Amino acid sequence: MSVARFERFFRLAASLDVDKSDIKRYQDFVNQKIYDLMLIAQGTAKANGRDIILPRDIPVTKGLQESVHAFRELDQELDLAPLLEQVLILPPLDRGLAEETLDGLPQLVGGLSLALARTFKIIDPALKNPNTQAWEQAFEIFNLLL
């Protein structure tokens, strides 16, 4: 992932200064949360007798949907969606992903990313550079919700 674009995203999203060392934490976060969402979506597809996961199977909350919309506006300036595709490692699943599901994943990752950045500021409004503790707290909050 382009470090400069990653840094700029967090700066614009929540006035945070992140650096190259934060990229691994970020990638771990994104991939774990996408895996969590896909596990639930897989169960929904199975319950509906389908072999593929459709976008409607993914449990997108109102807050996450709002973050996805806000990310789209920010992405027009940054063009991050192609980079987010590189960050994402799709987990092995029992069900395949429909083409429209695959196409929507960068936007979903972007929404999660924006929500993560804003979560740091909720935890500590004065935070400028998230440390290990801040990352762990944000992960714990998301683990409660997703």
From TrEMBL:
GO molecular function: protein heterodimerization activity
SUPFAM superfamilies in UniProt: Histone-fold
Signal peptide residue numbers: none
Domain of life from the UniProt record: Bacteria
InterPro entries the UniProt entry points to: DUF1931, Histone-fold
Record protein name field: DUF1931 family protein
Organism: Natronosporangium hydrolyticum
